[in-house]
Structures are given as structure tokens and as C-alpha cells.
Amino acid sequence: MSTDHDWLTNTRASYNTVAANYADRVRKALTGQPYLRAALALFADNVREIGGGPVADIGCGPGHITAHLHTLGIDAFGIDISPGMIEIARRDHPDVRFEVGSMTDLDLPLASLTGLLAWQSLIHIPDNEIPTVLRHFHRALRPGAPLQLLFHTGTESQLKTEGYGGHPMKVHIHRRQPDRITTWLHNTGFDVEAQLLINPKDQAPQSFLFARRESR
């Protein structure tokens, strides 16, 4: 019999299995991706505008985005559910802090962050867990701090059974429309300032949402 948390266990195990191949695939993911780099530059500017400070990259994988934020002068650290991913992140980026953790039970002090980034990590979270995750984000962020989300756009969910390097996986991919996530954000106490659709003609387009924790 399956339990409500099987998806979490399966996601962790799947990314442990594919960690090395996934890291090889995304190591140069920002090359030739001007919109992704621009989004990170904007995020860095937003963090500096409120005085700077610690920033969390949630679902950081092998740490390439976290490390890029460091090159932009941001005090970023990474959190990922997969110990295999964190091991590679620490190996490849020894000057950056990484730790194992889950966004469903985020162990960060109240209002300790000046920014939070979640790129392609909400896609594995089932609908009923999203409000809990966003409440964790809201709690950890200072008032007025930026939140940037990147996710697959669509309306369907699918089970991914084979991944990077042909390794077996058992992880769900949930594609969502920006308006749906915007509603969740508003209900949690975030102001959504902008959205951006990337590669709209692709089979699997991506969307950005740029938000802030409400100042009150």
C-alpha cells in the first residue's frame, strides 16, 4: 500500500540515481539562454535593492544556478532533497554552501532570507502540498523579499520512469498554468509582479513568476 509520502521518497531516490548524469547535462545550461541569465540578474538586483543578505536556491540540484548567483555577488546557498545532488554540488562548487532538505519541511529561521529561488523544483510537488510549500517560503522570507519561480507550463501530469543517462526514475512531473500558481501565491501572502513565458512554441514551454512577500 502506498502512503502520502511515497512521492517524496521516490523523488529523492530518483535524483540520487541520476545525479551524475543530470549534473553533466545542466552544467552549461545557462550558456545560450539569455532569458534565464537575465532573470537571475534581475533577481540579484531585487535582492540588492532590499539591502542584500542570505538567499536560498530551493531544489538546487547540482548547484549550477546557486553558483551563478555567487558570480553575481549574491550570498546564495542551495537546498535539495537528494543527497546525491548535494554531494555533486559541494564537489563542483566548494566555496558555496549546500545542504540536504525538503521544501515541504523547510528548516529555516523566520524572516531569515532576502530572496528565494525555486527553478523547476515545484514541478515535483503534488497540488495538495503546494500551499504548505509556499507557506514555508513566506515564513522564511523577509517582508518585501523577492521570490522567483520557474516551472513547466501546461495542465497535465505524467510519471517519468526513465531519466538522464537512461537510469530508472519514478517521479511525477506536474505542468501548471501561471494563473493557477499566481492564485496560490496570492492566497499565501505574495504579490506577483510579472510573469514570462519562455519558448512558447516548444512542446514543453516554461514560465517565470516574479513575486515578493507582501511588506505587511
UniProtKB/TrEMBL annotation:
Gene Ontology MF term list: methyltransferase activity
CDD domains reported for this sequence: AdoMet_MTases (cd02440)
Record lineage: Bacteria, Bacillati, Actinomycetota, Actinomycetes, Mycobacteriales
TM stretches of this protein: none
GO biological process, one term: methylation
Domain spans labelled Methyltransferase: 55-144
UniProt-recorded name of the protein: SAM-dependent methyltransferase
Top-level taxon of the source organism: Bacteria
UniProt keyword list: Methyltransferase, Transferase
InterPro entries: Methyltransf_25, SAM-dependent_MTases_sf
